[in-house]
Amino acid sequence: MLHMEHVRKNYGTFSLNCSLDVAPGCITGLIGQNGAGKSTAFKAILGLISTEGGSIRIFGKDLSEVSPKDKQLLGVVLSDSGFSGYLTIDDLLPVLSNLYENFDQAFFLSQAQRFALPFKKKIKDFSTGMKAKLKVLAAISHHAKFLILDEPTAGLDVIARDELLELLREFMEQGEDRSILISSHISSDLETLCDDLYMIHEGQIILHEDTDVILSSYALLKVNSQQYETLDKQHLLRVKKEGFGYRCLTKQKQYYLENYPSLAIEQGTIDEIIVMMIRGAAL
Q1: Residue closest to 224 by CA, chosen among 255, 260, 263, 259
Q2: Are residues 111 and 141 in contact, defined by beta-carbon separation less than 8 angstroms?
Q3: What is the CA radius of gyration of the chain?
Q4: What are the CA-CA distances from residue 261 to residues 169, 183, 240, 255 (Å)?
Q5: CB 269: neighbour CB atoms within 10 A?
Q6: In what order do the strands lie in the sheet with 281-282?
Q7: Strand ranges, E, within the chain
Q8: Which of 60-74, 209-223, 267-281 has the lowest average pLDDT?
Q9: DSSP conformation letters of 180-224
Q10: pTM: predicted TM-score of the whole model, two decimal places
């Protein structure tokens, strides 16, 4: 569905060098701190910024060859864009109908009612959650095959985030040829949604793994200085000095469970893995 290979973009002190893939039928997450390069990568994919190297392919075509008809199969939500605040949902209907050949007005209206979006209220008076749901709803209401969603859950409370994620799950259930690329700095949203995760830091991909592998095989070891000296370190990814000794990140949890039964071994959250990958020292 999407293939990016060493896509480069420089902004003064910031440099993007990004490679990632989104397979048909998969939800792929891009996680990282604010300013890590998520939005820059998304703008490069959509051709909204020029790049200085690398290649981007969507639907098997080079980005330069993607036609307006191909773009009808994309549904896009960008973190820093949206509809004019002076429009209402009633105002949007003819706009969306003219933008998308396959705009499904009946579906759009039924979902707007489901999420209690006011039809005649100006969008500028919507809550943050209402605005987010409207953006995602517009992106999925024209039978898109590939959604590109940059921080769609930012600023939402837990209920609004759950409703929005449920909408995305329902989108995927409509066909095996659908895919989603979604970014977020709220990693807990993505661990239950995504098939695989890319972690980006300072414009570089520093980790790519299937989500179930992260949740089942990655772990944090908490060891004192004496334990650390005798520890087999061949399966450690990162180490961080702490007051009690050392915190170690591994993707071979079972190895340490079997060979070091006395160690404190914890199932690390994705947030903790991010911290270790960024702040821990590589061996």
Answers
A1: 263
A2: yes
A3: 21
A4: 39, 37, 21, 10
A5: 16
A6: 264-266, 219-223, 245-250, 236-242, 281-282
A7: 2-11, 14-22, 27-31, 53-58, 61-62, 74-77, 146-150, 179-184, 196-201, 204-210, 219-223, 236-242, 245-250, 264-266, 281-282
A8: 267-281
A9: EEEEES-HHHHHTT-SEEEEEETTEEEEEEEHHHHHHH-EEEEE-
A10: 0.87
Neighbours of 99 (CB within 10 A): 12
Amino acid at 78: L
Number of helices followed by number of strands (H, E) in the chain: 11, 15
**pLDDT band (50, 70, 90) for residue 55:** very high
Q: Which of 206, 223, 227, 225 is nearest to 273 (CA)?
A: 206
Asked whether 17 and 6 are in contact (CB, 8 A), the reply is: yes
- Which of 2, 3, 4 has its CA nearest to residue 204? 4
DSSP string, 58-74: ETTEEGGG--HHHHTTE
* Confidence at 210, pLDDT banded by 50, 70, 90: very high
What is the per-residue pLDDT across 11-37, written as a single tens digit (0 to 9) for each? 888 999 999 999 999 999 998 888 888
What is the structure's pLDDT at 84? 84
Q: What is the number of residues in the chain?
A: 283
Q: For residue 159, give the 3-state DSSP assignment.
A: helix
249 contacts: CB under 8 Å, gap ≥ 6 = 218, 219, 220, 221, 236, 237, 238, 239, 268, 273, 276, 277, 280
Q: What is the mean pLDDT of the chain?
A: 89
Contact 268, 227 (CB under 8 A): no
Torsion angle defined by CA atoms of residues 65, 69, 74 and 79, in that order, rounded to the nearest 10 degrees = 80
Contacts for 85 with CB less than 8 Å, ≥ 6 apart: 122, 123, 124, 125
